[in-house]
Amino acid sequence: MKKLLLLLTLLSSLEVFSQRKILIQDGISLKPLSEVVVRVGDQEYFSDQNGLATIPIDGNFDAVFFKEGYASVEQEIQSKSAEIYLFPLSVSLSGVTVNAFETDRPLLQQSASISLIGEQDFNRFNETSIVSSFNTKPGIRIEERAPASYRVSIRGSSLRAPFGVRNVKVYWNEVPITAPDGTTALNLLDLSNIRTAEVIKGPSGSIYGAGNGGVINLKNAANPSVGTATSEFASGSFGLSRGRLAISQPIGKGGLEAALVTQESDGYREHSAMKRRVFQLGGFFPVSEKQEVRTQILVSDLDYQIPGSLTADQLEEDPRQARPGSVNQNSSISQQSILATFGHLYRISDNIENNTTLYLNTNDFENPFILDYKKELGFGYGGRSRFTFDWNLAGRPFRLIAGENISKA
Q1: Residue-wise pLDDT tens digits, 162-186
Q2: Alpha carbon distance 230, 21 (integer Å)
Q3: Which of 39, 79, 187, 395 is the most exposed place for a label (fewest CB within 10 A)?
């Protein structure tokens, strides 16, 4: 019996002797790091809250240390105890280049206040509305008086038309979607029609036309690299449903992109339902090394109800009720619109290029309201052409831009 106890004691002491204690610390703050993965061959071990990892191996061995946010380390362990230092990863952020003034300069070198909203900003929120992503930027405020009815304010310039955005110029893929009277039906676009947005704040946007509110450049130009087919569906409270079907197909060095998006909602309040269907088809065709052709077709069918504003007493009584008279008069907006564009880029030389875009749009608008009724059928067309000249002047890059923008309604 004594020999058996002696043997067990000896085996346990050998096991303790064979264990290796490794202390893992932050290489800058020297704080112990917990939950560090220590990989030895096919086995994995983890450090505790004190940064200690116990490895039950005798003799020398190679170990790799992993932790999210830190550079991995591979080291040979020779002693009974060792200290390992992991250093945080250093991430270099790439520069952001914008072409708000057709200069293709880094954002910090632009001579005006510009905000860039990218796909990462859009993906932070749901795609049912553009409000949340734009409101993350300073000086920009978008409000939604009813589903799909937007009010845009840039630096407090919140002037607006009765049925759209006023005092702010809006461009989509270099085509002005702001009407000649200054109004913009921003609600015709679905968020999936936008990949990036550049917002020029204040009078600096006058390069795009009169108006001191600013300019919003929306971009979603077709540029397919691989053939894909995607489908999405989402549902939520108050009868929300949203579906999207998209196809991308390369053709030669160019290709086509098409997307169909439908969105419906019953709304939180009475008489606040919304239904929108948007179809987009875009093409990109490099004719030669000097020429590129881009085409775009946007078809939008939008219907939404307007519940109207409430007094304080009505709000306290029932916040979900519609304004008296809105239901009986069917206060709502029905709008069908088509926008077609044709763009041509011609590189005349290494220093001179021309970019010309032709477009036409149709608009069928109906708005019964409590106090009035509006019916409008519109047709417009226009063109935008610019020449860009690049030289070196006194050893410094020099760019001259000249162009013309014509629209008829």
Answers
A1: 555 667 788 888 888 877 666 778 8
A2: 51
A3: 395
